[in-house]
C-alpha cells in the first residue's frame, strides 16, 4: 500500500440537479496550476455526491443531468499529469436521489419518528421538509446498491484510495432494523439492544464495502468517515486502512478537538491525518475564507501531533478551482513542506496518560475528558489519551477524570501500573469502586457527596500567587476522611445553606462557613485525589483555580521525573517526539490565541511572535547538537544532570527545535 501523502486537499462537490452547466469551465491546466500553487500532493476528488449524482457515466447510478462529459476521468488525468495522488470520494450515508424513490429506507432515530413524505412538482421529486439530507439505513436494500457502486468505481478508475462519507453506528428504528432485531433475538423496544444492532449494522456495512473494494484492488486505501474516531471502540478505527481526523475548529469541533483525538489515535499503530478546512465556518461555505494565519497554525498543529494534513475545499458547480483558495492553502503547505522529515516516523513522548471517559462509558464529548486535555495543553504536560487496550506502563502518571470508577480489567491494569511505580490522579468519584470506597490509597477514605452545593476550596498554600482565600467550586463536592500519612494540600468548606426561595443570600450563592471541613486535595501512597469534578467544571467554566490545583498535584506526583518544563504561555502548544532511527528528539512549539467572533466562532487572525522561550528537556541521551528547523541554525544549550536546557529564540506561529543525541 502506498504511503499516505502529507499535503492533501479534500474536495467537496455536492451539486443540485437543477443547476446547469456542471463542469462547463473545468480546465486541466487551471486545475493543475491550483494544485501546484497550493503545494498539494494529494486531492480527494468526487465520484458521487450527497445529492446522489455520479460525475462519470455510471452503470450503477445516475450521472448529474447537466454534466455532459466524464468529469471524474478528466480530474484523474489532470492529477496524473501533475503527479498528485487522487483518492476518490463516495457519498455513502447520503443519497437524496435514492431517498426520493425510497423514503422508507431512511434512518429513524426514535420509535416515534416517521419516514419523510416524497412529493413531486413540475416533474421534480422532493421531500416535504426543510432543505437537508436524509441518512439512509444500511440495513435497507440500499446497501446492495452502494456495494455495487463501490465495486464499479474501484474497478473503472483503479484509485489509490476511496473515502466513504457519512457513515457511523446509528440508533435506528426503521422497519428493516426492527426486522433484523427480531431475527437476531434483540428487543426492538430497547434502546440498548437497538444501539447494539447499530454496531452490528455498521460492521455489516464496512465488511461489504471493504470486500467489494479489495476484491478489485487489494491494496486500495479505505476510510469510512463519521466525523469522529470514537475512543475505546477500536473496531471502528480498524475498519480503515488509515485514519482521517475531521476537525474543523470553526465548524463545530473547536480548537480542543484535534489534539485530544490525535493523542488517542497516535497509540493505534495506524497512519493518520488531520483534516481542517479553508472555510471561515464549515463545509459547504462558498466564498468563506479563514485567515492565512489560522490555516498555518492548524497545519502546524497537525505536524506537531505526527499527523499528515488535509484541508477541505469545494469546487464551484462550473468545475473550476478557486485561485485564492490555493494561494491560501499554499501559505500553510509551503511551510509544512520544509519540515516534514522532522514530523513523522517518531514516537510521541508522554509522561501522563488520560483514561478516556468515552472509552469507559461510550459517551461522546465528555466534558471531563475535554477539560483534562485542555489543562494538559495549557500546563505544557506531555500526555496521551488512553483506552483500556493501551499499554499503561509507558507512563509515569495516569489521570482518571471525574467519573472513571474502577473495576474488572481496569482495576487489574491499574494495580500492575502502581506496582511498577506509577501514580494516579483521581477526581470526583474517579478511583472509587462505584460503591463508595476508593480502590487505591489516595490518602483519604471516601465519604460520599456533600449536601451543599456550591462549596469552597481553601488551599493550604498561596494559590494563584495570592494570599490564602476560599475559592468557589460549583460541581458536587465529595466528603473524605484523611488516612494516616496523607499529605493534605487543602480543605473543603461548606456554605451556610443551599440557595432556595426560603434561604438565599446575595446575588448568586451563599458564602462559605469560615471553617475547614474535610480534606479536598490530598496525596497518598498511590497518588492524588481532588474532591470535585474539576475537569468537567474547567471545560464548562474555565476558572483558573481548577487548573492551578491540578497542576500542583501533578507536579508533586511527577517531581523531578517530569520530562519537559517551559515558560511558553498557556495559549501555546508543545509536543515532543523521539525519532530513534535518526537519533534525535523533535520539539514542536506553537503559539496563537484563538478569539471569539460573532456567535461563539473561534478564529485565529493575529500571530504575535514570542522570543527567548525557555525549555528544559530531561533525557538520558547526551545531546551533541541542538538546532532550529527549518533554519538549520545551531542553538546554544547546556546538559547537566540529565537535563538539556536551551531557549527557543523566536516562535512565529510555530517553531521546531531538534535535539540530536549520541
List keywords for this structure.
662 residues, alpha/beta, TIM Barrel, Rossmann fold, Immunoglobulin-like, nine-stranded mixed sheet, eight-stranded parallel sheet, 15 helices, 33 strands, 27% helix, 26% strand, globular
Q: Write down the domain tally.
A: 3
The largest sheet is: 9 strands, mixed
Q: Could you tell me the number of beta strands?
A: 33
In round numbers, the mean pLDDT is 95
* Beta-strand share of residues: 25-35%
Shape from CA axes?
Answer: globular
Q: What is the level-2 CATH architecture name of the largest domain?
A: Alpha-Beta Barrel
The helix/strand class is alpha/beta
Q: Numbering strands along the chain, what is their spatial order in the largest sheet?
A: 13-12-14-15-22-21-20-17-18
CATH top level assignment of the largest domain: Alpha Beta
Which stretches of 5+ consecutive residues score pLDDT under 50?
none
Structure explained in plain terms:
It contains 15 helices and 33 strands. Helix content is 27%, strand content 26%. Strand 1 (7-12), helix 1 and strand 2 (42-48) form a beta-alpha-beta unit. The two termini are 34 Å apart. It folds into three domains: 7-93 and 137-168 and 209-344, TIM Barrel (Alpha-Beta Barrel); 350-561, 3-Layer(aba) Sandwich (Rossmann fold); 564-661, Golgi alpha-mannosidase II (Immunoglobulin-like). It is globular, with a radius of gyration of 27 Å. Helix 1 (28-37) packs across helix 2, helix 1 (28-37) crosses helix 10 and helix 14 (534-541) crosses helix 15. A nine-stranded mixed sheet has the order 13-12-14-15-22-21-20-17-18. It has an eight-stranded parallel sheet with strand order 7-6-3-2-1-10-9-8, with helices on one face. The mean pLDDT is 95. The longest helix is centred in the N-terminal third of the chain and has 24 residues, at 191-214. With 662 residues, the chain is α/β, with parallel strands linked by helices.
Amino acid at each position: 500500500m502506498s504511503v499516505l501523502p502529507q499535503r492533501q486537499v479534500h474536495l467537496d462537490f455536492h451539486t443540485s440537479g437543477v443547476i446547469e452547466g456542471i463542469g462547463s469551465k473545468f480546465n486541466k491546466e487551471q486545475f493543475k496550476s491550483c494544485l501546484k500553487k497550493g503545494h498539494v500532493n494529494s486531492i480527494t476528488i468526487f465520484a458521487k455526491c450527497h445529492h446522489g449524482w455520479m460525475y462519470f457515466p455510471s452503470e450503477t447510478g445516475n450521472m448529474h443531468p447537466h454534466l455532459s462529459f466524464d468529469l471524474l476521468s478528466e480530474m484523474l488525468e489532470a492529477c496524473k499529469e501533475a503527479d498528485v495522488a487522487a483518492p476518490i470520494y463516495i457519498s455513502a450515508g447520503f443519497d437524496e436521489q435514492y431517498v426520493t424513490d425510497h423514503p422508507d429506507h431512511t434512518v429513524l432515530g426514535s420509535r416515534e419518528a416517521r419516514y419523510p413524505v416524497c412529493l413531486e412538482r413540475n416533474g421534480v421529486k422532493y421531500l416535504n421538509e426543510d432543505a437537508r439530507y436524509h441518512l439512509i439505513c444500511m440495513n435497507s436494500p440500499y446497501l446492495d446498491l452502494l456495494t455495487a457502486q463501490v465495486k464499479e468505481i474501484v474497478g473503472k478508475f483503479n484509485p489509490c484510495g476511496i473515502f466513504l462519507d457519512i457513515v457511523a453506528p446509528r440508533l435506528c428504528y426503521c422497519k428493516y432494523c426492527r426486522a433484523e432485531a427480531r431475527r437476531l433475538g434483540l428487543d426492538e423496544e430497547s434502546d440498548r439492544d437497538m444501539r447494539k444492532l447499530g454496531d452490528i449494522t455498521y460492521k455489516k456495512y464496512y465488511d461489504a464495502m471493504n470486500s467489494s473494494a479489495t476484491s478489485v484492488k487489494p491494496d486500495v486505501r479505505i476510510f469510512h468517515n463519521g466525523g469522529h474516531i470514537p475512543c475505546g471502540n477500536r473496531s471502528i478505527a480498524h475498519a480503515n486502512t488509515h485514519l482521517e481526523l475531521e476537525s474543523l475548529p470553526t465548524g463545530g469541533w473547536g480548537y480542543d478537538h484535534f489534539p485530544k483525538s490525535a493523542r488517542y489515535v497516535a497509540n493505534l499503530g495506524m497512519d493518520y491525518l488531520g483534516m481542517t478546512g479553508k472555510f471561515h465556518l464549515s463545509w459547504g461555505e462558498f466564498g468563506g475564507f479563514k485567515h492565512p494565519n489560522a490555516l498555518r497554525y492548524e497545519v502546524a498543529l497537525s505536524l506537531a501531533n505526527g499527523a499528515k494534513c488535509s484541508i477541505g475545499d469545494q469546487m464551484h458547480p462550473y468545475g473550476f478551482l478557486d485561485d485564492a483558495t490555493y494561494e491560501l492553502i499554499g501559505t500553510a503547505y509551503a511551510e509544512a513542506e520544509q519540515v516534514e522529515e522532522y514530523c513523522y516516523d517518531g514516537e510521541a513522548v508522554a509522561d501522563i496518560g488520560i483514561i478516556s471517559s468515552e472509552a469507559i462509558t461510550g459517551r461522546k464529548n465528555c466534558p471531563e475528558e475535554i477539560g483534562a486535555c485542555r489543562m494538559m495543553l495549557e500546563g505544557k504536560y506531555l500526555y496521551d489519551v488512553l483506552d483500556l487496550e493501551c499499554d499503561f506502563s509507558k507512563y509515569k502518571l495516569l489521570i482518571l477524570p471525574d467519573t472513571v470508577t474502577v473495576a474488572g480489567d481496569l482495576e487489574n491494569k491499574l494495580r500492575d501500573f502502581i506496582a511498577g511505580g506509577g501514580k494516579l490522579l483521581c477526581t470526583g468519584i474517579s478511583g472509587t469502586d462505584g460503591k463508595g470506597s476508593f480502590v487505591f490509597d489516595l490518602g483519604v477514605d471516601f465519604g460520599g457527596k456533600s449536601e451543599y452545593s456550591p462549596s469552597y476550596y481553601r488551599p493550604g498554600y498561596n494559590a494563584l500567587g495570592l494570599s490564602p482565600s476560599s475559592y468557589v467550586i460549583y460541581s458536587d463536592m465529595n466528603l473524605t476522611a484523611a488516612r494516616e500519612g496523607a499529605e493534605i494540600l487543602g480543605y473543603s468548606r461548606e456554605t451556610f445553606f443551599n440557595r432556595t426561595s426560603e434561604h438565599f443570600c446575595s446575588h448568586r450563592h451563599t458564602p462559605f462557613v469560615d471553617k475547614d471541613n474535610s480534606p479536598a486535595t490530598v496525596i497518598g501512597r498511590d497518588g492524588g485525589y481532588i474532591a470535585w469534578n474539576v475537569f468537567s467544571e474547567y471545560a464548562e467554566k474555565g476558572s483558573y483555580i481548577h487548573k492551578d490545583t491540578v497542576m500542583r498535584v501533578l507536579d508533586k506526583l511527577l517531581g523531578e521525573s517530569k520530562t519537559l518544563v517551559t515558560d511558553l504561555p498557556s495559549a501555546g502548544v508543545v509536543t515532543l517526539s523521539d525519532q530513534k532511527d535518526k537519533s534525535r528528539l523533535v520539539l514542536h512549539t506553537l503559539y496563537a490565541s484563538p478569539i471569539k467572533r460573532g456567535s461563539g466562532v473561534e478564529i485565529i487572525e493575529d500571530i504575535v511572535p514570542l522570543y527567548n522561550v525557555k525549555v528544559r528537556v530531561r533525557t538520558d541521551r547526551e545531546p551533541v547538537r541542538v538546532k532550529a528547523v527549518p533554519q538549520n541554525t545551531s542553538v546554544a544549550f547546556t546538559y547537566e544532570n540529565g537535563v538539556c536546557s536551551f531557549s527557543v529564540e523566536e516562535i512565529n506561529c510555530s517553531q521546531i527545535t531538534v535535539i540530536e543525541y549520541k
